[in-house]
Amino acid sequence: MGPAVTDKTTPLHDEHVALGASMTPFGGWLMPLRYTSDLAEHRAVREAAGLFDLSHMGNIEVTGPDAAAFLDHALVGWISKVRLRGARYSMICAEDGSVLDDLIVYHKAPGVYSVIANAANAAVVLAAFQERTTGFDVKLEDIQPGQALIAVQGPRAAEILRATPGLAEDAELAGGTAFDELKYYACLGMRFDGDPVLVGRTGYTGEDGFEIWVPAEHAVSLWRALLAAGEPFGLVPAGLSARDSLRLEAGMPLYGHELDTTTTPYEAGLGRVVRLDKVTDDGEPVDFVGREALAARKASPPARVLVALRGEGRRPARAGYDVVQRTADGGPGAAVGTVTSGAPSPTLGHPIALAYVTPEVSAEGTQLAVDVRGRAEPFVVVPVPFYRRPQS
């Protein structure tokens, strides 16, 4: 089946096609799944660097005198505490505490924030924001259509950006921060071919890396410049398949798998992003959307818990497979949960999975199994993440 007629393309679509990428519909967009092989692209990111087109991600700019207070109300995080040119992972929840999307907020200038949403949820986030503006002096603008987002992820990412022609530091745009001083979960302004770009240091692979928001008309030039500069360092273009296996090794959630509208941040082990203690400048509690439900959820015993599973055999678990008790005869026992994401780990050499299970079987070291087409494959509960990058 071919792509739906409604699937949008990014400013880099022709570049992907020219590089021989296999394209696939994703979140309403036609995106590169892979260029060569999933394994080669995954390993390149772990050992050198990968180049990703993330232009499908939503980008909602929030500006105005009440921008920070609005985001404190609309999101579960304490966004007014994010320093200038800092970034924070957060979530937007419904009144019942369920997750509408997980996202990253960049405080890119005084009174100016960019909220990066998942592609499939960008319209949902914008609509929810619009509903939550009552009483706040803010302006919301969907700036995604005029931009491209390109990421370089991997241990050699910083070297590649330094070597990229046309990409230059600008002390005024950067607020006096040099590129080499850019910390994790922060951003700064730079220039590419003379025009302002925003560079963030976040990522979704478990490696060091950078994201560059560039005007759409400069996307192809930047993509080609990064590819050329990165070739001596081992940079390769990488698609959605590698991005998924990389984020799974890093234990990072994917909306639609670990997170959805049946889940609160607490089941997902992400209760730390919910700031029930946030207050206004006057010391008054912030009545953010979902606060009452989330406070009640925090105080209640969970019905299910997200855990990491390491396979002891060779057959991988896949999303939707039942997690079961181990039995003496090796067959599937009673169901105790469901796999949300699963795959062989190219880095670790064994299957890995994330799954929701009952609290009674969620302790590290618990021996479980996954029903893989009627066969009970042995898995054990392990700490998350599966992979941590070596510290330099």
From TrEMBL:
Could you say which residues form the signal peptide? Answer: none
Q: Where does substrate bind?
A: 211
Top-level taxonomic group: Bacteria
According to the entry, every stretch annotated as the Aminomethyltransferase C-terminal domain falls at: 304-387
Enzyme class per UniProt: transferase
| EC number of the protein | 2.1.2.10
Q: Does the keyword Transferase apply?
A: yes
The GCVT N-terminal domain extends over 12-278
| Family matches, as InterPro entries | GcvT (IPR006223), GcvT/YgfZ/DmdA (IPR028896), GcvT/YgfZ_C (IPR029043), GcvT_bac (IPR022903), GcvT_C (IPR013977), GCVT_N (IPR006222), TrmE/GcvT-like (IPR027266)
Q: Name one GO biological process term.
A: glycine decarboxylation via glycine cleavage system
Give the keywords, sorted.
Answer: Aminotransferase, Methyltransferase, Transferase
What are the annotated GO cellular component locations? Answer: cytosol; glycine cleavage complex
Catalytic activity reported? N(6)-[(R)-S(8)-aminomethyldihydrolipoyl]-L-lysyl-[protein] + (6S)-5,6,7,8-tetrahydrofolate = N(6)-[(R)-dihydrolipoyl]-L-lysyl-[protein] + (6R)-5,10-methylene-5,6,7,8-tetrahydrofolate + NH4(+)
GO molecular function per UniProt: aminomethyltransferase activity; methyltransferase activity; transaminase activity
Identify the Gene3D superfamilies for this entry.
Aminomethyltransferase beta-barrel domains, Aminomethyltransferase fragment, Probable tRNA modification gtpase trme, domain 1
What protein family does this chain belong to? Belongs to the GcvT family.
User: What task does this protein carry out?
Assistant: The glycine cleavage system catalyzes the degradation of glycine.
Assembly and interaction partners = The glycine cleavage system is composed of four proteins: P, T, L and H.
Name of the featured protein: Aminomethyltransferase
